[in-house]
Design goal:
Ferritin, binds MU-OXO-diiron, mainly alpha
């Protein structure tokens, strides 16, 4: 059985992961409106990955006999002052999520809950990738995004992103 505190943190994280998907789809909506289909595509795939994270945590709880209860998914901001704003917001959001995942890992460690620690090792590593991916994109945008040809090329590059199913097996 999972400790109540650990189960609650993971349960709350399920809602946060669905919120992440919702937020990234909102970024995609913005970029579609701006005519940047590559940026939109990149965030649509990101949203799919967030949904995967939510579903993996949901399954993990269910495999441990925890009743999952969904929370309310907040409304995304919807106002972005320029093309860079969603990228900056995405990086800040991933840093926030890393903190949440670390909190779960820390709580599992306090409880000597080795099963949850083993499972969340994957999410700890995944957060490293998530921060790097969006951080790299922000750097590229700062380098090339203010030049129309550079922005066009970057948009084309982002169109090539391919969805990959999560490697974590529960
Ligand atoms: Fe589910 Fe982007 O972390």
């Amino acid at each position: 059985m999972l400790a109540k505190k650990v189960a609650k943190l993971i349960n709350d994280q399920v809602t946060l992961e669905f919120y992440s998907a919702y937020l990234y789809l909102d970024f995609a909506n913005y970029y579609i409106d701006e005519g940047l289909d590559g940026f939109a595509h990149w965030f649509e795939i990101q949203a799919q990955e967030e949904r995967d994270h939510a579903m993996l945590m949901r399954t993990y709880l269910q495999n441990n006999d925890v009743r999952v209860v969904f929370g309310t998914i907040d409304k995304p901001d919807q106002e972005y002052k320029d093309l860079k704003a969603p990228l900056k917001a995405a990086l800040e959001h991933e840093q926030f999520i890393t903190g949440c995942i670390n909190k779960i890992y820390g709580a599992a460690s306090d409880e000597k809950d080795y099963r949850t620690m083993e499972c969340f090792n994957w999410f700890v590593k995944e957060q490293g990738e998530e921060e790097k991916n969006v951080g790299d994109l922000l750097k590229k945008f700062k380098l090339f995004g203010n030049d129309p040809k550079g922005l066009y090329a970057l948009n084309q590059e982002l169109l090539t992103r391919v969805y990959a199913a999560p490697t974590l097996v529960l």
